[in-house]
Amino acid sequence: MSVLASEWLKVRTVRSSYLMLGLSLVGILLGVAVAWAAVGMYDSATPAQQAHAAIADLEEVVLMVPQLCMGVLGVLTITSEYTTGLIRTSLAIVPRRWPVLAGKSAIVGLLGLVTGPMVVFGTYVAARWMLGDRFGGSYTTPFLDRLPTLITSSLTVAVFALLGLGLGATLRSTAGAITILVGLVYVIPIIVGNLPEPWSERLGSLMIGALPREITGDDLTHSVYGSLLSPVAAAMVLIAYAVLPLLVGAWLMRRKDA
């Protein structure tokens, strides 16, 4: 409990934490802006154009905002201590070392679990209210039918927070860890999507963006990702994204000097 209290104190007394949390919630405003623009375009279109109009799930479109922000928060939680040298004090007080990383994991994971649902459900509610039955009624699906996907999508924010923490503990470099996070969100999915089959489908199924719908068994026919994993396998891959970098980081913390 003392380690948890000290890690919580570190997180809540630096401005970067509030900045990342604030930027995460900007995802809701982004979703509202896109929905407002979509309503204007739909209402000004001809009936023939409206009949063929479609829109993506906006809560999934803006999800990369809290994912990246909370991932950066996870990185800064550990790399800032290496930069300032505070990590030596932390490890001197807790010589077993791994509880320090465990405490940080609990804090950033909890922040991710709070932030993710706020953005995902906030965007969904706003989009559903603004779009109504436009775009073929894509937002008129019963809420309970969408709930599993909304929950699993929300969990990816906490996964990114823990992934960032694990990468930061492994690399001890803010720039290096953030570069990998950005690659996972933007670059690698584009590269995988342009690979020849069957590799595009195989590797696409392992991307974080594909896992929420694979876990819930949703249709991914029109997705840029693959859909080869079973719900259990997809859940295990999602957990691995969070756990494996943390295990590597904990091992290196015990093996290397601060």
Could you give a short description of this structure?
The chain is mostly helical. The protein is 79% helix and 0% strand.
Give structural notes.
This protein has 13 helices and no strands.
Note the topology:
Layout: H1 2-12, H2 15-43, H3 47-52, H4 58-61, H5 64-84, H6 86-93, H7 98-131, H8 134-137, H9 143-171, H10 174-193, H11 199-204, H12 211-216, H13 231-255
Radius of gyration: 20 Å
Please outline the major beta sheet.
none
Class based on secondary structure composition and strand pairing: mainly alpha
Number of strands: 0
Shape: globular
How far the N terminus sits from the C terminus, by CA atoms, comes to 23 Å
Pick out the low-confidence regions: none
The sequence of SSEs as H and E is HHHHHHHHHHHHH
Strand content: under 5%
Q: Average pLDDT across residues?
A: 88
Helix share, percent: over 70%
Descriptive key words:
258 residues, mainly alpha
